[in-house]
């Protein structure tokens, strides 16, 4: 057959539908009208789809009523009806799909020439256009087939056996960096889209930096897209967390000999690790996808986690409203996570509305453009530190008293270690609840609470239902659904 079309194969598939209309359901799982090369064949296939949707017979008379006889030569329909029946229709369908994709790639070559030479746009804009078109082709060409029960049960048994070989460990995916969180989530798993959201100054960037540090120390590769902070500032925070040297001292270079020695050791250690930082300040979903794929294709990089700080700073594609752009971005991140089989962690802002509530602990409805994000995410976590609000409240009272000419002594005690709450608002395959960590302010570092390791007290988790409590008591058993 011709590499980009075959009239005979298209005719054979359409003839097959005439002889056996039940086959149309299976064909529609792979083909769309645009996949047919001959315009007349495309029109006839569209007519078949409309008749199928209307629960009408798919035969010669009804097809003629659905198509415009001026656009389609009568001989085309007669050739289809007189074609020899075929037995392996799906093989023919795949040939049509393959040829359709090749035609789209050939068309893309023309687009590449146009945007690269003829259009008056920058190289980056040309790359965005080309990557977007290629992504559409790859997405439209992907097909999936229904799995029968034997396949599903076989895959599930293989999964259980794989988990058993791990020795019933609670950490199945990539570590969150905290034992208490790992026990609640089994880690961040293949294909997960994880959203970590908070109001400003709660420490969400510090939290994901701690996660990145723990993963690279396990010899995993991490890609960090920093859209708000330069790479040098990220590294200073990372070093403060790793060396326990206060961040302000690192910024000023104010360290004693012992701290300088620790810093040198930390640099030597980190230089052997796989952390890749993109601090360009702006990136769209096409650019991010291309950069992640490039690094992930090299197995030596061991890419196991992608972090984006933060989602609302990503650029959209085209002239869509912001809600639609965020929807496209979150969906694109979820599809990329599934494609590469790695977790993607994206930070997100919260609406100001929660500031007006007495209890300022975040909820799912506080997510900006929450509809798409909430739908696509597998795990949604919120970072909350009550002391941040207590300090602001006391500062406000002090200012108001001063404005009235009164004295007011702040009741807030500035502690070097504050309690932080990681609120799991959504978890597709596990319980929701609250895990408490300690936040070391001068190190911008989150750590498990000491009693998590001493055994002197249980890990404090708040559950929503009795079923969640029952699920927690069997946390070592992997969730296979």
Automatic annotation (TrEMBL):
Respond yes or no to whether keyword ATP-binding is given for this record. Answer: yes
Q: Which residues cross the membrane?
A: none
Q: Which GO terms describe its molecular function?
A: helicase activity
The residue ranges of the SF4 helicase domain are: 167-453
Query: E.C. number, please?
Result: 5.6.2.3
Keyword terms: ATP-binding, DNA replication, DNA-binding, Helicase, Hydrolase, Isomerase, Nucleotide-binding, Primosome
Q: What Pfam families does this protein map onto?
A: DnaB (PF00772), DnaB_C (PF03796)
UniProt cross-references to InterPro entries, sorted A to Z? DNA_heli_DnaB-like_N_sf, DNA_helicase_DnaB, DNA_helicase_DnaB-like_C, DNA_helicase_DnaB-like_N, DNA_helicase_N/primase_C, P-loop_NTPase
State its role. Answer: The main replicative DNA helicase, it participates in initiation and elongation during chromosome replication. Travels ahead of the DNA replisome, separating dsDNA into templates for DNA synthesis. A processive ATP-dependent 5'-3' DNA helicase it has DNA-dependent ATPase activity.
UniProt lists the family membership as follows: Belongs to the helicase family. DnaB subfamily.
Stored NCBIfam families: DnaB, PRK08506.1
Q: What is the official name of this protein in its record?
A: Replicative DNA helicase
The organism named in the record is: Aliarcobacter cibarius
């Amino acid at each position: 057959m011709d590499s980009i079309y075959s009239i005979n194969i298209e005719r054979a598939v359409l003839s097959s539908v005439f002889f056996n209309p039940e086959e149309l359901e299976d064909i529609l799982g792979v083909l769309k009208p645009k996949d047919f090369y001959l315009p007349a064949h495309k029109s006839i296939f569209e007519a078949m789809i409309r008749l199928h949707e209307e629960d009408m017979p798919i035969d010669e008379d009804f097809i003629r009523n659905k198509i415009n006889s001026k656009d389609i030569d009568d001989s085309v329909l007669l050739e289809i009806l007189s074609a020899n029946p075929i037995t392996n229709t799906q093989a023919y369908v795949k040939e049509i799909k393959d040829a359709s994709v090749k035609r789209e790639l050939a068309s893309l070559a023309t687009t590449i020439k146009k945007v690269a030479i003829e259009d008056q746009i920058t190289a980056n804009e040309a790359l965005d256009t080309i990557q977007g078109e290629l992504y559409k082709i790859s997405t439209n060409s992907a097909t999936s087939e229904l799995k029968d029960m034997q396949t599903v049960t076989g895959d599930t048994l293989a999964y259980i056996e794989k988990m058993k070989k791990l020795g019933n460990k609670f950490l199945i995916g990539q570590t969150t960096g905290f034992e208490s969180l790992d026990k609640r989530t089994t880690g961040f798993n293949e294909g997960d889209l994880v959203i970590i959201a908070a109001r400003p100054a709660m420490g969400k960037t510090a939290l994901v930096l701690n996660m990145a540090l723990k993963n690279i120390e396990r010899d995993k590769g991490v890609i960090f897209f920093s859209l708000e902070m330069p790479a040098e500032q990220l590294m200073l925070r990372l070093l403060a967390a790793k060396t326990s040297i206060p961040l302000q001292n690192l910024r000023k270079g104010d360290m004693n000999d012992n701290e300088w020695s620790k810093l040198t050791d930390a640099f030597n250690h980190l230089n052997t690790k796989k952390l890749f930082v993109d601090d360009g300040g702006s990136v769209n979903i096409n650019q991010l996808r291309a950069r992640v794929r490039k690094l992930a294709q090299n197995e030596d990089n061991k890419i196991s986690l992608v972090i984006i700080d933060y989602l609302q700073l990503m650029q959209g594609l085209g002239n869509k409203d912001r809600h639609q752009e965020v929807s496209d971005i979150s969906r694109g991140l979820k599809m990329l996570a599934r494609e590469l089989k790695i977790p993607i962690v994206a930070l997100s802002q919260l609406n100001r509305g929660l500031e007006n509530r007495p209890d300022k602990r975040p909820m799912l409805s506080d997510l900006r453009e929450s509809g798409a994000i909430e739908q696509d995410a597998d795990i949604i976590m919120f970072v909350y530190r009550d002391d941040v609000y207590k300090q602001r409240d006391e500062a406000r009272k002090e200012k108001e008293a001063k404005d009235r000419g009164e004295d007011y002594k702040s009741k807030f005690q500035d502690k070097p270690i504050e309690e932080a709450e990681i609120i799991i608002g959504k978890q597709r395959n596990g319980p929701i609840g609250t895990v408490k960590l300690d936040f070391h302010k001068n190190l911008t570092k989150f750590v498990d609470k000491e009693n998590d390791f001493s055994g002197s007290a249980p890990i404090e988790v708040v559950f929503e239902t009795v079923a969640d409590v029952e699920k927690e008591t069997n946390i070592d058993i992997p969730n296979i659904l």
